[in-house]
Task: inverse folding
């Protein structure tokens, strides 16, 4: 749909979708005598009807999102942990350059380690959740909790069955709490 300039006196009865649109004047800061207004949509527009029915990210977007968020959160937490360890390891005889080097090396090393672990966990979770959605052909809480259980169990599978069961239970509880707390988070924190 092409947007053509509209007169500000245009009646709303001409277009039944005017309630879903807002007036926009790109030249309002120039103080020009003429007004050119555009009727822009206030909601997303989709090329195909099927796209408007989907209320979630695609599997590729899901994998990218969870892997990136996991790596970023893990790298930040690891850098903070490495910073604390490096500050404790500083000796009184160290020069300023040596202190800075020790802090940067400690933060970078721990940040990479924990960031990579959290990124892998995010990748596994996103893949399992997208697989569950495709397999069950529904998008509900069960998919998320089962993906959390499976992610924890798979991540710690090499450590033995007991560690895998504990990690799976922890993954399911964490995801269940996150899914249950999401409406409250949206209510109190505008995103």
Result:
């Amino acid at each position: 749909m092409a947007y053509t300039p509209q007169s500000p006196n245009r009646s709303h009865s001409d277009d039944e979708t005017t309630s879903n649109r807002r007036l926009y004047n790109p030249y309002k800061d120039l103080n020009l005598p003429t007004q050119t207004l555009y009727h822009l949509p206030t909601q997303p527009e989709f090329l195909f009807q099927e796209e408007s029915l989907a209320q979630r990210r695609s599997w590729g977007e899901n994998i990218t999102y969870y892997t990136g968020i996991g790596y970023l959160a893990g790298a930040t937490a690891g850098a903070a942990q490495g910073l604390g360890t490096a500050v404790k390891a500083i000796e009184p005889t160290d020069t300023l350059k040596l202190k800075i080097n020790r802090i940067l090396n400690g933060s970078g090393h721990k940040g990479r380690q924990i960031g990579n672990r959290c990124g892998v966990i995010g990748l596994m979770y996103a893949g399992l959740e997208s697989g569950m959605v495709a397999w069950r052909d529904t998008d509900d809480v069960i998919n998320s909790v089962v993906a959390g259980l499976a992610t924890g169990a798979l991540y710690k599978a090499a450590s033995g069955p007991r560690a895998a069961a504990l990690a799976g239970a922890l993954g399911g509880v964490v995801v269940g709490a996150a899914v249950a707390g999401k409406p409250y988070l949206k209510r109190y924190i505008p995103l």
Notes: Residues 12-45 form one domain. Confidence is low (pLDDT under 50) at residues 1-17. The radius of gyration is 26 Å. Residues 95 and 101 are 10 Å apart (CA to CA).
